[in-house]
Write a structure and sequence with these properties.
Elements (H helix, E strand, L loop, with lengths): L8 E2 L22 E5 L16 E6 L4 E7 L2 E7 L4 E8 L5 E2 L5 E2 L2 E2 L13 E4 L10 E6 L10 E6 L5 E5 L15 E2 L14 E6 L5 E5 L3 E5 L5
Parallel strand pairs: 3-7
Antiparallel strand pairs: 1-2, 2-3, 4-5, 5-6, 6-10, 8-9, 11-12, 12-13, 13-14, 15-16, 16-17
Length: about 230
């Protein structure tokens, strides 16, 4: 849910390895898009049934890994198949944004002729096995809870290796595409008292600002305080 209390969700292109990009650039398809359903009358309250309609805020997504918000800005995690994961940013009132798949992956041209109007990602994360490289992204929130060192930071990580990174959300607005030098490795800060974070399914915040890390082997960790 966005700051306007409406639902937002991102859909994948169906097959990110399709050389044509599949339906991600097809305006007649809902695949590879960032969508916001429009409110419709409830047919069960006596109104005539109506097909759900959508605002299409953006197209050209490959394999989205989450949507989160920072004020009136939308942050979308997306995964290309080979080179980069990326975090894209746009405003809740923007329409018709083109994130670039399959023409680009991150800021790298992949195929086809140059297409006008593509937006650059705010941040790209190279695929690999380094401490600031990813196998698959998990996108978290922009933290606004009581832990001062995290407040205002976007939290994201590597799903399959458990690395956790942060970047100040303010650094994602405008300017060139940011890379590994712009975000911080926070593994030691999030090291749990017991167990290991090694398969990050989700980062979750409650309405009261409590922050949780969901681990794929059955553990849920709560982040309670500053690192000691």
């Amino acid at each position: 849910f966005g700051p306007d209390k409406r639902i937002y969700y991102a859909t994948g292109s169906g097959n990110a390895r399709d050389a044509t990009g599949g339906p991600a650039q097809d305006d007649a398809s809902l695949f590879g898009k960032l969508l916001r359903p429009r409110p419709v009358d409830d047919p069960y309250a006596g109104a005539a049934p109506a097909a759900t309609k959508y605002d299409v805020l953006g197209k050209g997504l490959a394999q989205p890994v989450g949507v989160t918000f920072h004020g009136n800005q939308i942050l979308i995690g997306d995964q290309g198949p080979d080179i980069f994961g990326e975090i894209n940013q746009l405003g809740v009132n923007d329409l018709g944004v083109n994130f670039g798949w399959p023409y680009r992956e991150g800021d790298t041209h992949r195929r086809g002729s140059v297409v006008a109007g593509l937006i650059d990602p705010a941040l790209q994360i190279a695929y690999g096995l380094g401490l600031k490289e990813a196998v698959q992204l998990t996108l978290g929130p922009v933290y606004d809870g009581p832990i001062a060192s995290l407040r205002g930071n976007l939290i994201f990580g590597d799903r399959f290796r458990g690395h956790i990174w942060t970047i100040a959300a303010s650094e994602l607005t405008g300017g060139p595409v940011r890379g590994a030098s712009a975000y911080a490795l926070r593994d030691e800060d999030f090291k749990p008292d017991a167990g290991d974070i090694d398969f990050i399914t989700a980062f979750v915040t409650s309405s009261a600002g409590r922050f949780y890390i969901v681990d794929g082997d059955g553990e849920v960790y709560e982040v309670l305080s500053e690192a000691k």
